[in-house]
Design goal:
It contains eleven helices and 13 strands. The chain has 304 residues and is an alpha/beta fold. The chain has three domains: 80 residues, Arc Repressor Mutant, subunit A (Orthogonal Bundle), CATH 1.10.10; 95 residues, D-Maltodextrin-Binding Protein, domain 2, CATH 3.40.190.10; 103 residues, D-Maltodextrin-Binding Protein, domain 2, CATH 3.40.190.290. A hairpin with a 6-residue loop joins strand 1 and strand 2. Helix 1 packs across helix 4. The protein starts with 8 loop residues before the first helix and ends in an 8-residue tail after the last helix.
Length: 304
């Protein structure tokens, strides 16, 4: 056993940042160093390991087969160093650092902003970077290690990702305040058969629930529009172009303003879980653990 490691912790940080960002330029900006410094640290690490870790010339930069194998070990080493440092203060010192996460649109737009604001107010030396996309994209980013963990409303069957249910949401029929269905306390699912629905794009967790659940009870609604985000769907409904099935979380303000109505649908279950995703075997530090706990207790999370 040698007395010294063949690399430094800073070289590991550089490697992991390049792997996450896919760019020397972006890695240098995140680390607060020059691009030549990043390139030199990466070359020195490769020299000491005796193997190329990054395929030069690709955009974004891609890891070599050796780089992919080394990635998990590098993450574990840095996570262990962070844990060891926290033992010195009993894990009670102030949180600091940057955490990159991702979320699908309902959670990302209507739950996490409040949770992030409260968390960073209580921990001012932290920064939470949130990327928002559809559920399929979030799964892809977690698997690719672009983000430390993700939050989605859709299914995740990736073999390398751990899935934890954190809440249960309910979709409701959303229509304009003067739509004929707006006067109903509830709407039977069969009433949707003749309605023109405005749906999210394929890959959206909301769309997956709508299509699967309606088909499961023999209702095949017509899609009038396919729009890429919930705000666009709400605008189309307010302008009188159709109705949709959306989370009640997404229309709270419009319902209070009298612009939209959110009505329960009977004859079908439109409940859907919210999930937290983490790449299996990826070590998480105290900041990630604390933020995950804060989100699980967020006031805006639906409680079933």
């Amino acid at each position: 056993m040698t007395d010294t490691l063949p690399f430094t912790l800073q070289q590991l940080r550089v490697f992991l940042t390049v792997a996450a960002r896919g760019s020397i330029t972006e890695a240098a900006a995140e680390l607060g160093v020059t691009q030549p410094a990043v390139s030199q640290a990466l070359r020195e690490l490769e020299r000491k390991l005796g193997s190329e870790l990054v395929r030069r010339g690709s955009t974004p930069l891609e890891l070599s087969a050796t780089g992919l194998r080394f990635l998990e070990g590098a993450e574990r080493i840095l996570a262990a160093c962070t844990d060891a440092a926290e033992l010195l203060d009993g894990g009670t010192g102030p949180l600091s650092g940057t955490l990159a996460i991702g979320a699908s649109t309902t959670i990302g737009n209507y739950v996490l902003p409040s949770a992030i604001g409260q968390f960073t107010s209580q921990n001012p030396s932290t920064e939470i970077q949130l990327w928002i996309g559809n559920s399929a994209d979030v799964v892809h980013r977690v698997a690719r290690r672009d983000i430390e963990f993700g939050f989605i409303e859709g299914r995740c069957q990736h073999p390398d990702i751990d899935v934890t249910e954190i809440a249960t949401d309910h979709l409701k029929l959303v229509c304009r305040h003067d739509h004929p269905l707006a006067r109903s306390a509830s709407v039977p699912v069969t009433a949707l058969a003749g309605e023109a629905l405005i749906l999210r794009e394929p890959g959206s967790g909301t769309r997956e629930v709508v299509e699967n659940r309606l088909a499961g009870v023999g209702v095949f609604a017509t899609a009038r529009m396919c729009l890429g985000n919930t705000e666009a769907i709400k605008t189309a409904i307010i302008d009188g172009h159709g109705i949709s099935l959306l989370s009640g979380l997404t229309v709270e303000r419009e319902v209070l303003a009298g612009l939209l109505c959110a009505i329960p649908v009977t004859g079908v279950s439109l409940a859907r879980p919210f999930y937290r995703l983490k790449l299996r075997r990826r070590g998480l530090g105290r900041l990630a653990d604390r933020f995950a706990a804060a989100v699980s207790g967020a006031a805006k999370l639906p409680r079933g």
